């Protein structure tokens, strides 16, 4: 049986930009590009970036911004039941994000399972 498994999380992106707004926009674009590549190759079925906030401002003129991005990722898995789908989906999401070089991930929810 097919199940959709989704999970919310946060990640940190560090980059050099001129303002808070451009730093948040660039960090969002960078994460979106990585997640879009996963969607195109079928590794994930859907994603959403829900928020971008400045985690750490530059302390000197050439220091980078660190941006916190909140996101949700969904995968479709084949499993016998909800519990198996949750386990398989959580592993698939973690592996996909690791392969896309999304680091410093903190999951903010348990995997959510729904019959697809």
Automatic annotation (TrEMBL):
This is Uncharacterized protein.
């Amino acid at each position: 049986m097919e199940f959709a498994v989704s999970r919310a999380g946060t990640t940190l992106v560090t980059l050099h930009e001129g303002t808070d707004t451009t730093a948040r926009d660039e960090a969002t674009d960078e994460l979106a590009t990585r997640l879009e590549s996963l969607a195109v190759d079928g590794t994930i079925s859907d994603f959403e970036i829900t928020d971008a906030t400045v985690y750490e401002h530059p302390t000197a003129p050439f220091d980078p911004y660190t941006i916190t991005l909140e996101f949700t990722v969904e995968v479709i898995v084949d499993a016998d039941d909800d519990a198996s789908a949750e386990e398989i989906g959580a592993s698939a999401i973690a592996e996909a994000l690791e392969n896309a070089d999304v680091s410093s991930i903190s999951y903010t929810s348990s995997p959510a399972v729904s019959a697809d």
